[in-house]
Structure prediction request, 145 residues.
Amino acid sequence: MRTRYGAAWAAGGLLALVGWLVFASTPASADTVLDLASVLVPAIAAVFAGLAARSTQGRARSGWVVMAAGLVCAAVAEGIWAYRDLAGATLTSPSVADAAYLTFLFSVLVALLLFPAGGNHVQSRARLVLDGIVMASSLFVVAWL
Prediction:
């Protein structure tokens, strides 16, 4: 029950941020709101992934723990970029933020492999095929860039 209320508060807070962004009077304040939202979204997702890990067992728990860790890395990376934008700092290339982004991507891949495939055999095979298509498409885009 507490998780539902937490999700409602998180959604309400994000809606308030979006409203503030829409009605922001200057581009600088809109950039600030976007930077803050880009840090808050993965951080909130990490909290809820952690809550999901607490309520499950086995491989599903491992998957949620890895997903939460990856989302924390994404929040850290976004925080570094937000600091760069707001403070006017310069980052070397590659930076710690780049390493955090890569850690996020690999942890999501590992989490997807850890989540158990439920349901009947046909659903499991269809899920496996769709996951393969998504991963192949993602790797193609990364290789193209």
Remarks:
- The CA atoms of residues 83 and 89 lie 7 Å apart.
